[in-house]
Amino acid sequence: NHIYTKEFPHSLEGFARDWLYYLAPRSITSWDVLKRMFLEKFFPASRTTAIRKYILGIRQLGGESLYEYLERFKKLCASCPHHQIYEQLLLQYFYEGLNSMERSMIDAASGGALGDMTLAEARHLIEKMASNSQ
């Protein structure tokens, strides 16, 4: 955690870097404190709630390939790294948002048992199918 605290400032630019350097001296006592303060400043609860709602209700757009949908889903999840949604639920929301044709293809490729696969197996299958849809 000490390494995170020391290296984190080097990853910041612009307003975020200024914010960090203008904090009161000795206000950062640990990585957890720094992380909490940063998230409160740059990811307010209202933004987190809005992104969580988008994740929960994501749908594949008309004409969007599996690859494009997966990339959009990943970017959405990455835009709020503290969304606190379990990986298994993320997979479920992604799957439920697929159009019926893509869902049928994934069902066929998984033998109708995507839910019985491990999370790693299911992710691998989806990644492989998405890369083939580019």
Automatic annotation (TrEMBL):
Transmembrane segments: none
Location of the Retrotransposon gag domain: 8-99
Domain of life: Eukaryota
One Pfam family named in its UniProt record: Retrotrans_gag
InterPro entries cross-referenced by the UniProt entry: Retrotrans_gag_dom
Name of the protein: Retrotransposon gag domain-containing protein
Species name: Cajanus cajan
